[in-house]
Structures are given as structure tokens and as C-alpha cells.
From TrEMBL:
Residues 121-212 form the Acyl-CoA oxidase/dehydrogenase middle domain. PROSITE patterns: ACYL_COA_DH_2. It holds the Pfam family Acyl-CoA_dh_N. Keywords: FAD, Flavoprotein, Oxidoreductase. This is 3-sulfinopropanoyl-CoA desulfinase. The keyword Flavoprotein applies. Residues 6-116 form the Acyl-CoA dehydrogenase/oxidase N-terminal domain. It catalyses: 3-sulfinopropanoyl-CoA + H2O = propanoyl-CoA + sulfite + H(+). Belongs to the acyl-CoA dehydrogenase family. It comes from the Bacteria. Its EC number is 3.13.1.4. One of its GO terms (molecular function) is acyl-CoA dehydrogenase activity. Residues 228-376 form the Acyl-CoA dehydrogenase/oxidase C-terminal domain. It comes from Marinobacter lipolyticus SM19.
Amino acid sequence: MNITITEDDRGLSDALNRFCQDVIAPKAADIDEGSLSATCHRQALSDIGIMGMNLPGAYSGTGASAVALYLAVENLAGACGSTASMVTAHFLATDSILLGGTEEQKQAWLPDAASGRTLGAFALTEPSAGSNPAAMRTFAEKTAAGYRLRGVKHFISNAAEADFLIVYAKTDKSAGHRGISAFIVDRHSAGVTVASPERTMGLKGGHVFEVALDCEVPAENLLGGVEGTGFRTAMQVLDNGRVEIAASCTGIARAAYEAALFWANTREVNNHPIGEFQGLQWMIADMATDLEAARMFGLKAATKREAGERFSVESAMAKLYASEAAGRITDKALQIHGGYGYTREMPLERYVRDVRIMRIYEGSSEVQRNIIARTALNG
Ligand SMILES: CC(C)(COP(=O)(O)OP(=O)(O)OC[C@H]1O[C@@H](n2cnc3c(N)ncnc32)[C@H](O)[C@@H]1OP(=O)(O)O)[C@@H](O)C(=O)NCCC(=O)NCCSC(=O)CCS(=O)O
């Protein structure tokens, strides 16, 4: 398969990289140190079109290619991992409507979300249903006006500041994954209770919340207008989301790698830059190779997504490889910086903390291996 980055993709990526370095990167350390919500960047991101970058022009999105989207998320995460996490969680919500919604639902909800006037959240995970969402307990009971949703969702990014949540819930407890439906829930409706943000190791500005639901949802907010289609929608959305996580990993790893290169060329021992020593050169070589491979996996998945073909395995490989590689790269970058890398005066320890969740959320490395192995064994 040929990976093609067009002139348009490259131009958009370069422009966004300048924006990310000028506007987003300078606040990344403060966001992390103070656990400040990355939604402080929402207006600036909206102004430049990032909040609708995953959506077609028909719904006021940017209409960017999947490759351009990959490069944009890489640049954003390289500037601030928390901000990329907030934006990609919004994409999970709007992709749910794009992939699973009716035309009326797309027209009603997507233009405001694309422009950043509204913020979305994706509520799939539950306290007892993480890797296996089919085991969810949230139930949507049919009522005269629509549905009554009852249950608890966990680790939901953006929930406190979101305007709408895409809530996945069972409409038929006896039908396994085919009994799962999705609903567009107004975050401010009575009976939607969002807890305080979780205290996390990294991505401290990408806040995640527990959400308790005991609320009424009008019938027209059943995504796609048909019960039982929610699981398939969620899986398709996660195919997209995993490529965006792969892009986030590559962005943070690239930032760590570039910091390591600078340090290797400028830090001296016995009047020699440390980059002259072979032990360090081998670390740099491994980092460069891991970074390149991670980007190739991500761009391959994005290319297949752009072609409209199923890309579940490519997406799983991209996320698996990039998240594991980002762990190795950021750790080596910190090691190259020695004691300085361990201090909060430098961003290295933040990079190490920020990439750790990437092996867990949107499907752990073990889940990605299951997806890859299943296809390898069964075709
Ligand atoms: C590991 C799993 C993929 C396993 O899923 P299952 O074994 O339970 O289901 P399957 O038998 O594979 O599929 C059932 C059904 O769905 C269709 N399907 C599956 N995958 C896809 C797909 N990619 N595209 C389209 N359709 C798909 C499949 O064909 C079957 O259809 P039929 O019913 O036969 O017609 C899965 O459990 C999994 O991915 N687990 C991980 C969950 C996960 O990633 N959770 C993360 C949540 S979000 C988050 O972490 C962060 C959110 S945020 O930041 O706020």
C-alpha cells in the first residue's frame, strides 16, 4: 500500500504545527503542573478549525483527509498531550454521530460541534465493563416519551464541560452486544451527575470523570433511530480513535526525541558533546527507528481509513506499536537527560507520564493484540 501525503496535507500540517508551537505548547507545563483543564484552548482550537477536523464540510467540518487529521493530532500532542486528549475525546463523540446517526441528527448536532460551540464526550466504559463493553450494565428503558437511562459510566473525558454525551446503553439485556444502543444525551439534563475529575498520573489537563445517569432522553436522540446498533458504531468509532491515539503517541515521542537530540548535541562531558559517545548514539538510533515505524503504522491506517476500507487491524497495530514505542522513546529521552530529565524543570518526565495511559485507554495493548491475532488466525 502506498502512503501518500499530499501537498495539501503537508501545508495544513505545517500551518497547524506553527499554531501548536506558538499557542498550545507554551501553556503545556502549567496545564500539567496545575491540573488545569485543556479546554482553556477550546476557543483557539475552534478558531483554527481543529474541533471539526474529523468532519466533512457538509456538517461544517474542515473536510481534511484522514492523513491530514493524523498529522494534526501528532502536532497537537507534541505541543500538549492533554489538549490532544481533550480534542480526540470530542472526535469520539462527533464520530459516533457521523457514523451512527441519522441525517437529521447529523444536521442537528454536528455543525455546532465542528465549530467548537459545543463539546462532546463518549460514554462507553463502565466501572465493571472496560475491555469488554458488551458487559455494560447501563440500561435504557423505553418510556412514553423516549427512554430512561440508568447506570454509571467511568473514565469519561470532557464530561464536566461537555454539552452532549454519547451514551452507550443496553436496550435489550438478553441480546449481548446486539442489545446495545447509543443515545445523544444533553449533559445538562436532569439526572446527569458528573463527579470531580479523577486524579491521574499524566494527561493532567485531559480531565476524566465518573458520570451517574438517571435521566430521560427523547426518542429522537436514539442514535440512528434504531435499537441494537450501538456496539457496531462504538467499534467503528474506536477504529478511528485508535489511529488518533497512535498519532498522539507519535507526537509526544517526537517531542521527547527532539529534546534528546538537542541535549545530546549540547550537553558536554570532558569537553565532548554526549552525542559523540556510542552508547548514546545507539539509544538515538533505536528512538529514531521506533519513531519512524510508529509513524508508518499510523499513516498506513490513516491511508486505509481515507480509502473507505475497513482498517480495524491497521488501527490496532498502529495504536499497539505507537503506544509501546512512545513508552520506550520517552523513557530513553529522559535517561539521556540524566538527573535533569527527572526534574519538573524539563518536560521529559511529563512526556513519560503522559504516554503511559496510551497503552490502556481506547483499548489496552492486550485488546489490540486480541484484535490482531483474531484476524491473523481467522482471516
Ligand atoms: C476486544 C473487542 C474488539 C471484542 O469485541 P467482541 O468479541 O465482544 O465483539 P466481536 O465479536 O468482535 O464483534 C461483535 C459485532 O461487532 C462487529 N464489529 C466488531 N468490531 C467492529 C469494527 N471495528 N467495525 C465494525 N464492526 C465491528 C462485529 O462484526 C460483530 O457484528 P455482528 O453482531 O456479528 O453483526 C471489543 O470488546 C473491544 O474493542 N474492547 C475494547 C473496548 C475499548 O476500547 N474501550 C475503550 C473505551 S473509550 C476510552 O477508553 C476513552 C474514552 S475517553 O477518552 O473519554
